[in-house]
Known about the structure:
The chain has 187 residues and is of the alpha+beta class. It contains four helices and six strands, in the order αββββαββαα. It has helices spanning 2-29, 78-87, 110-147, 152-185; strands at residues 44-47, 50-53, 58-64, 67-72, 94-96, 101-104. The strands form two sheets. Strands 3-4-6-5 form a four-stranded antiparallel beta sheet, with helices on one face. Strands 1-2 form a two-stranded antiparallel ribbon. It is elongated and about 70 Å long.
Amino acid sequence: MTEELNEIYSELRNSNEKTLTHLENELVKVRAGKATPSMLHGVMVDYYGSPTPLQQVANIGTIDARTISVQPWEKAMLNEIAKGIINSNLGLNPQNNGETILINVPALTEERRKELVKKAKSEGEHAKVGIRNNRKDALDFVKELKNDGLSEDFVKDAETHIQSITDTYVKKVDDQLDLKEKDIMTI
């Protein structure tokens, strides 16, 4: 029975790690006023009739803290890339100079910074819900083991251990949100 419990703990940690990774990926998309190539990760471009991620048709880099450059591998893609960036609703305005696309990332206003903090906290709340769902699944497995003859003491210990794992991951989510909030609010 202990190996089943260890398997439950391991599965809970794995699920929570996936939730944390997803949160990190979502928080990267919340821009903090600095230009980063990862801001364009969700952009899709029409590449000869099929939607393709931008990073598969162009080289993306930063020139300085406020400018992103997109160098397409085919010059014919310049207009499609510009269209894809505009359609992605990131609030960015691409400038086509015939060779590359330059995107100036505007400085954030105080109001916009607060909106971004709210968005980051919303993503954090989604992550916490995911962690709590993972806890519920783990507790359900413990209940199944209890029905199969696991003693009350082991059940109580397992529930306590599952809760401590959950608390650890909720703390990690809070820490990531605090870092992102500081990043967004720093001018």
